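FORM 7B - TANDEM STRUCTURE REPORT

SECTION 1: FIRST PROTEIN
SEQUENCE AND TOKENS:
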Amino acid sequence: MCLGIPMQVLESDGLVARCAGRGGERRVTLLLVGEVPVGGWVLVHKDDAVRTLEEEELGPLNDALDALVLAMRGENTDHLFADILAAREAEA
């Protein structure tokens, strides 16, 4: 399984960007996605931006990553997927 981390571009030289997300910063290559403006969001895997992100994608992505952390601790994750659970109940 591969995980991508949503990160925001803080500065960029066009090929490499300094990005921040989920409590950390790193230098990320932009070769796969092209130039991303400062303030833009990218999905980062192994220090490579693999695609650009729209701001509305950030909440669900971060919820899913938070759920992984909670699940590894054996904690409940239902609150992070309330919309999915409600839709499933409505279908039943």
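SECTION 2: SECOND PROTEIN
SEQUENCE AND TOKENS:
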Amino acid sequence: MSAKAMKHPLLPFIVILVAFFAGAAIILYWFPPEMKKTVTLDIRGASITAELAETIFERSRGLSGRPSIGSGEGMLFLFDTIEPHTMWMKDMAFSIDILWIKNG
């Protein structure tokens, strides 16, 4: 064993652990699990089926990486606080409309 490995016996374990979690994060970003939670929104007579984006991961992923979204479909981003929020959709393949809803 090298002198450096003996000084830091946990270093190889830490490197493997970091590599594992980095790989898992990349896989989840490019191949996320299907979002199961949906709600139906009725807005002035129009019905929209919206996937819920409740977690930081779901909100940061958003609609990025999808080839399209169906007519009458969308994504509802839920935030815990009423404050200015910005949207950034990386790698969008289609245009979107954003609607801000405050207090219901």
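SECTION 3: OBSERVATIONS ON SECOND PROTEIN
The helical segments are 3-7, 11-30, 56-61.
The beta strands are 38-43, 46-53, 73-77.

SECTION 4: SIGNATURE
Preparer initials: ____
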